[in-house]
Records
---
Amino acid sequence: MKPLRLLWFTLGVLCLFSPVARAEDHPAINPEDLKMTADPVAPGASAIILYRQVDRDDRQDATHEMNFVRIKILKEEGRKYADVEIPYDKGSSTNIVNIQARTIHRDGSVSEFTSKPFDKSVVKARSLRYMAKTFTLPDVQVGSVIEYSYTLILPDGALYDSHWILSDELFTRDAKFSLKPYSSPYSGVRVRWSWHRLPPGTAEPQAGKDNVIRLEAQNIPAFQTEDYMPPENELKSRVDFTYTSDPEMDSAKYWKNRDKEFNGAVESFAGKRKAMESAVAEIVSPNDGPEVKLQKIYERVQKMRNLSYEQSKTLQEEKREKQKDNSNVEDVWKHGYGYGRELNWLFFALVKAAGFDAHVVFASDRSRYFFDPAYLDAQKLNTDLVIVKLNDADIFCDPGAEFTPFGLLMWSETAIQGLQVDNEGGAWLKTMTPKSSASRTINKAELTLSDTGDLEGKLSVTFTGLKAMELRTDERNEDEADRKKTLEDAVKADVPTSSEVELTNKPDWTNSSTPLVAEFKFKVEQWASPAGRKLMLPLGLFSAGERKLFEHQERIHPIYFHYPSEQDDDIVVTLPTGWHAVSLPKEVSLDQQVIVYSMKAEDNKSSLRIRRSLSIDVLYMLQKYYPALRNFFQNVRTTDEEQVLLQPASTTASN
Amino acid sequence: MKSRSCYSQPARQPVTDREFVSVVLAALVCVIACEARAHGGDAPRWMHAAVDSPLPAHDEQTNAVLLYSETDVSVISIDKIRTVERRVYRILRPEGRDYGTVLVTFRSPGEKVNNIHGWCIPAQGKDYEVKDKEAIEASLPKVEGSELISDVRAKILGIPAPDPGNVVGYEYELEENPLVLQESWVFQHQVPVQESHYSLLLPPGWEYKAGFLNYPEVQPVHSGDNSWNWVVRDIKGIRHEEDMPPVRGVEGRMIVNLFPPGGPGNKGFSNWSAMGAWYSALTNGRRDLSPEIKQKVSQLTSPTATPIEKMRAIASFLQHDIRYVAIELGIGGYQPHPATEVFSHRYGDCKDKATLMSAMLHEAGVDSYYVVINSERGSIVPQMPADSGGFDHVILAIQLPQGASLNGLGPVIKHPKLGSLLFFDPTDELTPFGQISGALQANYGLLVTPDGGELTEIPQQPSTMNSVRRTGKLTLDTQGNLTGDIEEVRLGDRAWRQRWELRTVTNNNDRIKPIENILAGSLSNFGIVKASVLNLTQFDQPFGYNYSFQASSYAKNAGSMLLVRPRVIGVKAQAIMETKDPRQYSIEFEGPVLDTDTFEITLPQGYVVDDVPPAVDADFGFASYHSKTEVKGNVLAYSRSFEIKELSVPVSRAQDLKKFYRIIASDERSTAILKPIN
C-alpha cells in the first residue's frame, strides 16, 4: 500500500472508532418492547428482530459497512441468538471492528458485553484466511433485548457488489438500509440495483439528493423453508447492487451491447470454418439426412472427454497430465477434450459447418434464481446452450452437459429465458419444457404371491430422459458396487415396506441415447396381509414416493418441481394355486390436467394385473392451489392403499 | 442430538475422525484442490515397502485398506510429547478417495504440527508429494449445541490422485503439551488394517501402564533403554450398522498411562479412583459461592421447603435460567468455570452448569458430586482402564437426605458410603428433576467423591417412565370414513422429543406439524379438525396431545364388505434388521419404553364384524409386543402394548429382533372384515 493511501486508510479506520462515525443513529428502545411477551404479528416466534440497520459506504478509500441489530427474546429457544459469529475474509483485507454488544433486561438495566471477542481462524491456507469474530452476550433471559453492532471494513481500492437480504430466519419489525455508492468522474463505474419481493407497503429503494440509496421496511416475515419450494433467492425479500462499467440503463441497448460482446467471444473461439468442415466429414456421411447428421454430431461431441464432469484435480496432477488449454474449437477437436462450454461451442461450430442454422444461447439456469432481463445483470447468464433449426423446428442442445439425451436439456436449463446471440442485438427466447413422458420411471414386475402373503419374482425398472440422466450423472465417478447399491436403494425407497432387492443385469451407464434399464430379483415378505382365511393384497407396490408428500395442511411458498416426470407400474401377480380374487377395487382415474393418476387392477383368474400411472406436467404452482394439490395426493394415497381380497377355493366352498 | 457434549479433548486420530472430516472438509474440498500444488518427489522407503503388502481380508464394499500404520510416541518431559504418525492406504473404491485427505486435530495454543507430508504412489507413473505449505488450517465450524468457542483446530492436507488402485500415505509430527499424561493407540478403524505399529520412548526413570480394549492384550518388544514396540496385524474394519454401539465401545485400542519419577502430579492417574482425585483437584475451589449466589438460593428456596423441593427449585433454575454456551480453551475442556462466573454470565456448558448447581445445592444444605460420563451408552465399560478421553459430559449425583421419599425419583442408587444418590443432568432442559434421559441410563460414569472416584452405573428407569399412552374413540361410517378423538399422554424421552420439536417451531401455525407427522405415518387421507398441546412447558407434568381428525376412505370396500385396519395410528415396526449383510454388532435401544395404544371404533349401522385379526403375544425377553382385537357390541376394540425391557440385544439374538419387528409389522397391517347384516 502506498504511504498516502495508507494514511487515508488509517484515518478512515480511526474515524470508525470515533463517536461521530458510528452508524446512523438507531432509535432508542421503546419501553413497551421491554415489557412485551409476544408479538401478534409473529405469533409463536422464539425471538424477533425489533430493529436492524445496515449502512454501507463505498465512497471512501476505507469502504465499510456498519451493522446494528436489536433482538427481543421471547422464548428460551430464542436465547441462541445471543451467540454471535461474524465471518470475514482476512485474506482479502476485510476486517470486523468496533464490536459492541449489550443485554437490556426487562427492568431496563443493562449488562454490557465487556470481554474481547474471540477471533477464530476458520480456514487458513497459503492464499486465504477466513476468520470469524465470535462472542456471546451475558445474562440473556426470556424477555431480554439483546443488541450488537459492528463495522465491516472492506479492502482498500476494491468495489464489491452488495446485497440487502431483508428476509431473516426471524421476523423483523423495522429495518433501515443505506448505501453511499462509489462514484468517480474518471472511472465510469456506476451502481445498478434491483429489488425483489419487498414487503407490502415498502417504498422502492431510491437515491436521494445526497446520492445515498435508502430503504426502510417493516414487518418482514421470518423466512421458512418447505419441501418442493422454489430457490430461496426467489422467495426472499432482497435488494441487489451491482457495479458496472456499462452506464447503459435502457434494457434493449444494454442487451444489444452484451450480444455484441458474447457474439465476439463465440466467433473468436468457434470461427474455424475449414477445420470444422473437415471434422464434420469425419462424423457424418453425405447420405445422412439432416436429423441423423445432427444427432451424429451431438453424440460425437458428447462422447468427448468432458473436463467439467471429472474429479477435481490438484495442480500437480494437472501439470503432470500436460493438458493443453483450448484456444478455439479446433484445439478442442484436436485435443479431444474440453469443458462444457468449449464442447458446446465446438458443437455449434460443427453444426454450422454442416450447414445448419444455429446460434449460441446464453442463459441463466433456474437452480438458484429465476432470471429477469429487466435487471440488466449479464453476470447471471451462467450457462449456455445451442439452438439448431431442424425442419423448421428449434432444437435445443447442450452436449456439454454430460448424459443429456439428444433433444433434452438438463432440468435447470429447461423453461428459462436465454439470449440468442447473433451480433444483431440478440433475441430473447424461452427454452423447451419437456413433457412428463420424456422422463419416466417404468416398473415392470412379474411376481408370484405365496399363500402366506410373500411376493417374489422379477422386476425391471427403466429410467428414461432426465431420470436416466440424473442417475448417470450422479454415478459417473462411482464403481459398480456403488451403482448397484444406488439402484437397489432406489427400488427399496419406492416400496412402502421392507423389501429384498438384488440387481441381476449390468445397466448401460455411459450411453445417454438409451434408457437406463435395471433388472432385479425382488421379494417383499408379507406384502399381502391375512384376514382370517383370506389375504388382502394392497395395490400400491411402488407408491412409497407419494406416502408423505404434501402431508401438512398449511403452505407458505409456491410449489416447485424441477422437471415434469412420470411413473408407470405394470405388475403381474400370479396367485397361489387355487386362490382367486373375491373383490377388486374399482378403476380410479384422477385428472387435474397437469397432474394425472390412474390405477387399475384386472382379474385374470390365476393372476392379477395392476397398472398404476402418475404423471406430473407442471413446474410451478401458486400456493393457492396447494389445497387442491394436497387433496389430489391424499386421493392417490387412498387409492394406493386399496386392496384386492383373495381367498382359496376351499373358503369359497365353505361360503 | 439429545445430550450436549461439553467435556472434551481433541481426538488424536487423523483421518479416521470421519465426522470432523465430513463437516469441515465438505466446505474445504475446493480449497484443498487448489492449494495442493505440490512437487514431484519420491515417496519414502517405508511407504514403498508397504505397497506390496498382502491386502487384509475385505469385500467389494471396502473403500480402502490400511496397509501400514506407525505411531511413534517420544515423551520428552512432563510438558512435551512428540508423536510421529505414518500411514499407508491402498484406495480400493471411488468412495475411498477420502483417505487422500489427511486431517490432524490439535489444540492451539499448546500443541503444534511440526511437519506434515503426504505422498501418492500411483499405479502408473511417478510418485506425488505434498508438503506443509500446501496444508490448510481450519477450526470447528459453529454448530448449534456444540462449542461456541474452542481452541481445537485441524491441519488438513490433500494428497494428489487418491484414486482406486493408487496408494496414498502420509507422515506428520505432532508436539503437544499434554493436559493429561495418557496416550491412546487406536488400531482398529472403519477400513481393514494389515499392520499397525506403536512405539513408546520414555525418559529415564519414567514408567508406563498399558491396557487393551476390545482386543486381546499384546506384549510389547522392549528395544533398548525405555523403549517398547507393539504390533498388531490383520484387523477387520468397523462397518457402520444402524443402532450399533458407539465406535469407541467396539474399536480395538490401547490406553497408555505415563508415570514420571515421583508420580504424574496433577496430570495423570493409573485407575478410576486416581482419575476421580485428578478431577476433584481440577474442580477445587470452582464451587465457591458469591453473595449473589447465596441470595439467589435464598430466593429460590423457602426455609420451610423440604430438601427435595429445594433441589427441584434449584434444578429448574439451572435448566432454564442458565443458557447452554460452551467455551472450551486449553484445560477448559476438562475444567469448569467458577460458579461465580457462570452465575453472573448466566451461561455455561455441562460442567459449568453442574458446578453452579452443586454450589447452590450446597448452600441449600445438600451435597452433590460430579459424575463424568459419555453421552453415548457403551463408550465406557467397567472392565476398561481409566480413560480421560472417553467422556464428553458431566452431570451430578445428588445426595438424598436419609429417609427422603424416593417416590417419583427414577435414577437413584444406594451408595455404601454416600447413601442414596439421585442422578440429574442440569444441561438437559426438558427432562424434569427426578428423571434422566435414556442415553444416560444403564451408562457408566465416573462418580467423583472426596476420596477419589469410582466407575458407577447409572440405574435404568422402569419402562413405564418413558411411554406414549394413546387412546382413541372413533366412529366409522358406511362410506369407510373415520372420525374421532385421540388423546396422547407422553412421559420421559417420549415427551422430551415432542417438547423439543415444538420448542424449535418458529410460528404457531407449525405447532400442528408434529401431529400431522404422526397421522401421516398411518393415514393416507386425513384432516385435523382440532388439536391442543398439554403441559408443553410444565416439564414435571406429562406432556399431552389431544386432537380430533377425520380420515376419508379409511375402510376399503371389498364387494359388500368393509376392510378396516384396527391399528389406526402409530408405527412400532422398524426395518433396521432388514439388511443383506449379517449383523456384526449388538443393537442398542436408546432407553426402556412402554407404549400402549387403545382404539375403539364404533361400527357403521348395518354392519357386523365378520373376521378379526388374531391376537399377538410376542415376548422375546429383551422386548415384548401384545395386541388383540375384540368385538364389544358395535365397537371394534383394539389394544396393544410395546415394551423395550433390555437396552442391548446381542448379535446372537439379532434374528429374534428381526422376527419381533416382522410380527409387529404384520399386526400393524392386519385387517378386520365387516359385512352387512343382510
---
Amino acid sequence: MQTHHAANYANQILADLGETARIDVVSDAPEIVFYRSGLAELSQPCPAPIAAAANGVMLALNSLSPDPKLLPENGAVLLGERARLLGLQGQGRISANGSCRLIDASDGRLALNMARDDDWDLMSAWLETEASDWDSIIPVIEKRSAIELVRRGQEMGLAVSLDEFPERPAHFFKAQSFEAAKNNQPPLVVDLSSLWAGPLCGSLLGMMGARVVKVESQTRPDGARRGNIDFYNLLNAGKEGAVFDFQNDVSLSELKTLIESADIVIEASRPRALRQLGIIAEDMLTAKPGKVWLSFTAYGRHVDAIGFGDDIGIAAGLTRVIENAYGPPSFVGDAIADPLSGLHGALAVWSLWQQGGGVLIDLSMRDVVRYAMGNDFTFAKMVKGKTLYPMRAIPKC
Amino acid sequence: MGQVYKPGTKLSSTVCKTQIMALRVPAEELEITCGGAPMQIGDPAELGAMSGENSGTLVGKRYTDAEETMEFLCTRGGDGTIAVEGYVIDIKAAKKLPSSD
C-alpha cells in the first residue's frame, strides 16, 4: 500500500522551518517502512510512524540538496543501520544494545541507561543503599518512587528518565535569533559532538556540501571509536579531524578560534559544560552574524539532565504507544532518539543556514522523537515478504 | 568534630551556595568544610562569612582527594573551596564516553 505519510511529514517540517511545502510523492505505508528499516527485528511494529517520518526528513533534505545523489537513499535505513551491523535483537524491557532497562517503580516506570561504566559507582549514592549491579538495584527501585528517583538521578548526571507520554510539541526545535547575514557556501561545520546524533548530523551536512571538521578532546575522544568500526566510518568518513587538549590553555584558545571561525557549530554537551570552558554559544553567535549553532540536548537547553537514545525514546512516550497496542512494554528501535535527532538536526541547520542563519537551534531529542511520532497511532499490521532497505556501503576512513 | 557520612548524603556550605553529595566516603569520621567552615546537612538559614579558601566549586563536577578514597558530586556551585580533614579536594577528570548509546 502506498501513502502520502512521508511527503506530508516532509512538508510539515519544511513549513516549521519557514520553507515552502513542495513535496508530493507516494511511498510505502508506515508499517512497511518500519519493517524495511530493520526495526521490526527489535520490537513489535510501532504504531507511531517514526520510520516513515525519517523518510520524510530525507525527502525534505533532498529538496534542499544541491546534489541529492550524495545523500542516503532514504531516512529509515539510518534508524536500523547500527542494529543490522551488530546483529542486535529485541530484548523487550532491555534495550537492543543492552545498556538500558525499563524498571517498574512503586508509582510508575523508569528507564535507566548505564552506558558509562563509571555510573555504577553512583548507584549506592543514588539509591542510598549498597547497590552495584542490576540484580541489586532493581528490587530497590521497585519499592521507590520513579518520579523521585528520576529527579535525584538526573541531578546526579545519570541517564534516567520517566516512562511517560508528553504532549506533542508544536515545533520540533526551539530557536533563538541573532543577527543574520548573507551566507557564502560551502559552510565550515565544526562538529564538537560524539557518539551518534551529532556525528550523523555532521555527516549529512557534509553530503549537502559543507566542509566538516570533527573536534575531539585529547583525553576523551569519541567513545564510538571503541565500538563497531564500520558504523563509526559510516558516521565520520570524509570529515577532517582536529584534536585539542581542553585542560591546556593554549590548546583551548585554539579551539575557541576554530569555533569562532565556523559557520555552523554542532555540539551535544550540557550548556554549562561549554560555559565552564569559556565557550558561550550566545557570544559566538553575536560575534559572527549568520552563524548557526545546533545544540543537541536530551530535554532542551533549559533542563540540566543528560540522556542517551534509548532512555530519551522512553521519555518521549514510545513505550506507552507499544504498551497500549500490545500489552507488554518494550523499547522501540536502537537508541532511536539518536538517528531521528541527527536527521532533524541536519535539516534544521541546512535550511536555516540557507535562510541567512544567525540562530541558536535548541534541539531537544525528546521533542524530536515526540514530534516525529505524530498523534495518529494506527495498530500496525505485521508485515511479511518485504525486503529490507539495502544497507549503505561502508566508506573507508 | 567529624561525622560518619553515608553515600547519597547532601551537604550544604554555610558560607556560600555550594551543595555537594557524598558518592563514595570511607566509613570513618570526617570533617568536611567549605570556605573554611564546616558543611552541614540541609541549607543554612543564613550564610556566614568566608574564612578559608574561596577558589569556588562547579556544579556537575566530581571532587576527589589525592588518593581517590572519596568522591563528592557538586550539586550546586558556589564560591568556597571544599576540604576534607583540612585537605583541599579537587575536580576529577570527566567520565569516559560510552562506546555506544
